[in-house]
Amino acid sequence: MKNHHRLLLSLLLGACAGLLLHSHAQSEILQNINRYLMEPVGQLFLRAIFMIVVPMVMSGLMLGVYQLSSHHGLARVAQRTLFFTVLASSASVVIGITLVNVFKPGVGLEITQIAGQAASVHKIEQNAAQAKPVVQSLLEIIPKNPFAAATQALEGEMLALMFFSLAFGAALAATNGDKPSRWVEFLEETYAACLLVVDTAMKFAPWAVFALVFQSTFKFGSEILFSLGFYVLIVVAGLLMQQGLVYSLLLRLFTRIQPLLFFRQCRDVYLYAFATASSNATLPRSLELAEQELKLKPEVSRFVLTIGSTANQNGTALFEGITVLFLAQVYGVDLSLAQQVQVVLMSILAGIGTAGVPGGSLPLIMILTQQVGIPAEGMGLILGVDRFLDMCRTTLNVSGDLVIAALVDQPDEER
Ligand code: ASP
């Protein structure tokens, strides 16, 4: 059986088992199975992948920048990455805002909080309260201490770690010229070893995918999806439009790649992203796929994919815009034009600054809802469906990174 078939089967079996057993979610035996079997199996896999993210981002990005700088290609690749990132993020926010304004899924919806969500809402509120002012956040992209950034990379310091890796890779190229360097050899070997660790962990993926999807469906069931059905539908429709229309169009306009063929080649990565709901956890597999199956230039894919896993999250941007306007509709908060523009801009920024971990965008949504005067409990309304929507938006986040890598990879003359 091919890898993506195996993963799809695990995903469907996990979802079916979780949904079937959800009605017995109070059973002690089932809760124990979930707690002592499913959770550890899922965590085992996630931790093995997270373990490799920091060395892989550092070595991959340093190597990518080193190689691009040595061939004087860095400025061009960086410009193209920025151009396509802004284009794709803006398109996703426009799609989201248009859908939510046209279909108004929140108007007339009865507010029913999901029991037991108050604690989670409070936690997100606390996280949001710790958010730093914009100037401070921008300054902190330059880390004072790269080692501290590395240890906190998965807790929100990823951009700082990337900045250091970019600067170091460029400096390495500048000091070294064309001479063979032991540093570069070391980085190449580190990167190759990371790929091997990823390969080994991936053997375990079908079990982990089953366990991860089981946990979500067992906990939340499917009723909640129906009670917020229209909102869920609008988010999923927006994500599909970005994938099917915007990405296809970009690939057609700027490359010779057949969009459908390209999406088929990426199936495997989409399944990982869906099951893990984490761009960071999917990054190692995306890097592998880009080099080995999509045959993109390693220096380009290492640069674009590592940066994109944090700084290009189109699914998150689209979700953020829809969710804030949806909650405003539910609570009857009339947003002025200036506030709507603020939502659009913040959503684009959310796509750039959100940590690539499950629920990474929730604190940002909390900040935005508070700024435009939506009650904090609004978050409780969407938390029940958030895991499912997180799985969907992460898939688009990762897909967007691969599309941009392909767009940047195309030399002008091939257009
Ligand atoms: N889970 C998303 C990701 O990893 C981030 C988010 O939107 O919460 O890409």
TL;DR?
The protein is an all-alpha fold. The protein has one domain (3-414): Proton glutamate symport protein.
Report on the structure:
The mean pLDDT is 88. Helix content is 78%, strand content 0%. By secondary structure, the protein is mostly helical. The longest helix is centred in the N-terminal third of the chain and has 43 residues, at 28-70. The chain contains 19 helices and no strands. It has one domain (3-414): Sodium:dicarboxylate symporter (Proton glutamate symport protein), CATH 1.10.3860.10. The protein has helices at residues 3-22, 28-70, 74-103, 118-129, 134-139, 146-151, 158-176, 182-202, 205-220, 223-227, 229-254, 259-265, 267-276, 279-292, 298-311, 314-330, 337-353, 362-371, 378-409. The site of aspartic acid has 16 residues, from helix 19.
